[in-house]
């Protein structure tokens, strides 16, 4: 009897194991239930949809694998097959998310050589060019990406950002509002819309956009800084200070408010804010000390009848080096330019747009400079850089901090570049007496 019972249990176990063996354990079924039936291979379209979902979930490698497998399944299709082009553009989008800009652009351009109006490829190429500061190329592709009825909301968002940077806030607002029609309450779009409204002096609507962006989950440091900026422009200094506090620490809040007041010509109030910033962080907040010196100088100019007040308010003040007596019997040699390194934040075709961006970034605590550069066939451009170090490694150590201030998820989206700073005189050669 016992032997019979053991044999029966063994048969039941074998049957159960056989049933398990016939069941699919494909991870694709677990990833997207109902997409694939047990034992059946996914179709290229199913793999594409699965890849799209994985990409939205941030599973880039898995998404790339499904796009490639779908593309392999279409190996016999013509090169201009729409499904093949869509999959190639999606693969390039994964590369773009991984900051592999050159590889992504090469794939986008390969698709565009076959179909110049491909929506996803134009969107991707526009994003790469915008990131590199090449606005004419970015605009060409983003306008093509928005020409289609099924345009992606991201194309309108990036076009709006580009138009704002080029000093066209009204056109930017049109593009950003179209992006919101397709993707309502998108936080980054709302934040960009607020900045465009602020550029037009529409403070109330800008304030509303920034508040909606915060509720929608926009990067808090960047958006609270923008909120503080518009509140300061509206004269709500206490509320602006509170917003700046949410964006950083107490010293940074007073420094940011002081800088806005300095730009607005409210020198006495600016001096008070910079002093408060130094009280909060006397040893670590060198920027507040520099701003305090500028505000004091501007206040003296504004109160002096011999000086023109507007000149002090509109022009950035630079520290004047102390004069020293030249050594006797010295030969004067040409100055030698210093090579420094900084972080490229943005590029603009006009100097006014670049300086406006530098002023905005200053309210976020980033000290920026505007440099003129000749891009040959692309003409003269103006680059906005932050940081100035002789050692590029010192600059790279600041990438994470700057990316956080700008609201970027990945510091590698920023570029470290070299530039020439003010020349220094060569050491004098003394003549023997």
TrEMBL record:
<dbReference type="InterPro" id="IPR019734">
    <property type="entry name" value="TPR_rpt"/>
</dbReference>
<dbReference type="Pfam" id="PF13181">
    <property type="entry name" value="TPR_8"/>
</dbReference>
<dbReference type="InterPro" id="IPR007730">
    <property type="entry name" value="SPOR-like_dom"/>
</dbReference>
<feature type="repeat" description="TPR">
    <location>
        <begin position="153"/>
        <end position="186"/>
    </location>
</feature>
<dbReference type="Pfam" id="PF14559">
    <property type="entry name" value="TPR_19"/>
</dbReference>
<feature type="signal peptide">
    <location>
        <begin position="1"/>
        <end position="21"/>
    </location>
</feature>
<protein>
    <submittedName>
        <fullName>Sporulation related domain-containing protein</fullName>
    </submittedName>
</protein>
<keyword id="KW-0802">TPR repeat</keyword>
<feature type="repeat" description="TPR">
    <location>
        <begin position="85"/>
        <end position="118"/>
    </location>
</feature>
<dbReference type="GO" id="GO:0042834">
    <property type="term" value="F:peptidoglycan binding"/>
</dbReference>
<keyword id="KW-0677">Repeat</keyword>
<feature type="repeat" description="TPR">
    <location>
        <begin position="251"/>
        <end position="284"/>
    </location>
</feature>
<dbReference type="Pfam" id="PF05036">
    <property type="entry name" value="SPOR"/>
</dbReference>
<dbReference type="Pfam" id="PF00515">
    <property type="entry name" value="TPR_1"/>
</dbReference>
<dbReference type="InterPro" id="IPR036680">
    <property type="entry name" value="SPOR-like_sf"/>
</dbReference>
<dbReference type="Pfam" id="PF13432">
    <property type="entry name" value="TPR_16"/>
</dbReference>
<feature type="domain" description="SPOR">
    <location>
        <begin position="335"/>
        <end position="415"/>
    </location>
</feature>
<feature type="repeat" description="TPR">
    <location>
        <begin position="187"/>
        <end position="220"/>
    </location>
</feature>
<dbReference type="InterPro" id="IPR011990">
    <property type="entry name" value="TPR-like_helical_dom_sf"/>
</dbReference>
<dbReference type="InterPro" id="IPR051685">
    <property type="entry name" value="Ycf3/AcsC/BcsC/TPR_MFPF"/>
</dbReference>
<keyword id="KW-0732">Signal</keyword>
């Amino acid at each position: 009897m016992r032997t019979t019972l053991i044999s029966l249990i063994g048969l039941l176990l074998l049957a159960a194991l056989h049933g398990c063996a016939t069941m699919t354990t494909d991870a694709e079924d677990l990833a997207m239930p109902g997409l694939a039936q047990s034992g059946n291979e996914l179709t290229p379209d199913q793999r594409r949809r699965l890849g799209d979902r994985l990409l939205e979930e941030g599973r880039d490698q898995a998404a790339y694998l499904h796009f490639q497998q779908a593309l392999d399944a279409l190996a016999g299709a013509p090169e201009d097959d729409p499904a093949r082009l869509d999959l190639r553009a999606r693969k390039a989008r994964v590369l773009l998310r991984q900051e592999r800009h050159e590889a992504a652009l090469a794939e986008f351009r390969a698709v565009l050589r076959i179909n110049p109006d491909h929506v996803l490829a134009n969107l991707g190429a526009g994003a790469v060019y915008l990131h590199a500061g090449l606005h004419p190329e970015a605009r060409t592709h983003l306008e093509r990406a928005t020409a289609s009825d099924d345009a992606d909301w991201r194309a309108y968002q990036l076009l709006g950002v580009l138009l704002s940077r080029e000093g066209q806030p009204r056109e930017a607002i049109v593009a950003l509002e179209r992006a919101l029609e397709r993707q309502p309450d998108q936080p980054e779009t709302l934040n960009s819309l607020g900045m465009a409204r602020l550029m037009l002096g529409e403070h109330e609507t800008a304030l509303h956009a920034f508040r909606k962006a915060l509720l929608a989950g926009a990067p808090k440091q960047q958006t609270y800084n923008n909120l503080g900026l518009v509140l300061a422009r509206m004269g709500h200094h206490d509320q602006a200070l509170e917003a700046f506090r949410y964006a950083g620490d107490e010293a940074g809040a007073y420094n940011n408010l002081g800088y806005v007041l300095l730009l607005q010509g409210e020198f006495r109030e600016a001096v008070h804010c910079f002093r408060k910033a130094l009280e909060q962080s006397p040893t670590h907040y060198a920027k507040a000390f520099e701003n305090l010196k500028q505000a004091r100088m501007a206040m003296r100019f504004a109160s002096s009848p011999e000086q023109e007040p507007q000149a002090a308010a509109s022009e950035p003040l630079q520290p004047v080096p102390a004069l020293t007596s030249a050594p006797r019997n010295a030969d004067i040699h040409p100055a030698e330019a210093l090579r420094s390194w900084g972080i490229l934040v943005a590029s603009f075709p006009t100097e006014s747009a670049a300086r406006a961006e530098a002023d905005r970034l200053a309210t976020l605590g980033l000290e920026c400079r505007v440099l003129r550069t000749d891009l040959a066939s692309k003409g003269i451009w103006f680059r906005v850089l932050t940081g100035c170090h002789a050692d590029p490694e010192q600059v790279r150590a600041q990438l994470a901090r700057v990316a956080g201030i700008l609201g970027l998820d990945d510091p590698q989206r920023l570029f470290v570049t070299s530039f020439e700073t003010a020349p220094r005189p060569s050491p004098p050669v003394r003549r023997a007496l």
